[in-house]
Amino acid sequence: MEREIIQTLDGSTTIHIKDWNESYHSKHGAIQEAKHVFIKNGLALFENKEIAILEIGFGTGLNTFITYIESKRLNQKINYTGVEGYPITSEELLAMNYIEELKANHFSVIFDKIHESVWEHETELDADFILTKRQQLFQEINDKEKFDLIYFDAFGYRVQPELWSTEIFKKMFDSLKEKGVLVTYAARGVVKRSMIEVGFSVEKLAGPPGKREMFRATKGNI
Predict the structure, then answer these.
(1) Exposure class string for 199-218: b at 16+ Cβ within 10 A, else e
(2) Taking the complete model, does pTM exceed 0.85, yes or no?
């Protein structure tokens, strides 16, 4: 499928799939969306803790990079697993402007290390952040009670409804430890019903710029 690099409304770049009219991140702001959905409503719940994170849709590495930066502010030790079925190309990566837009030149070595890390192997970004990238379809995930937090950042229900199925959310539920949390930009009723069906307690929260609402799901009672 034909892909192009576009600039989102907050100045940060993303990849747009023309055939689907679908982007890797919100057109209203890639960085704004990541910070609101995954950091403010996910990562920040675990301040001063050691946690394991699963990202569904490693994509451009934006969520990983922001998580690394924010984990220093939040005094966290993180074991991070990013799952991606179809890694982006080196040319697409070079077109991403996240270091500049985040004013994170002092973390440029970390950004390079994230993307140069070997798939299927643990990489120590530093003593407090371990990254493992897995090239894997989401349907193949079979982790059991391993993660404290899931970033569910798959392509939207409109273009890939199978990634938002009860089957997939059962895998997410099983992957989480008790009281673990899943956050996603999505807010469709059909998604909420699938989450509840597998046992999640679901909250509807204010969404990122350009989107009214989002979901946060917890394994166990809120």
Answers:
(1) ebebeeeebbeebeebbbbb
(2) yes
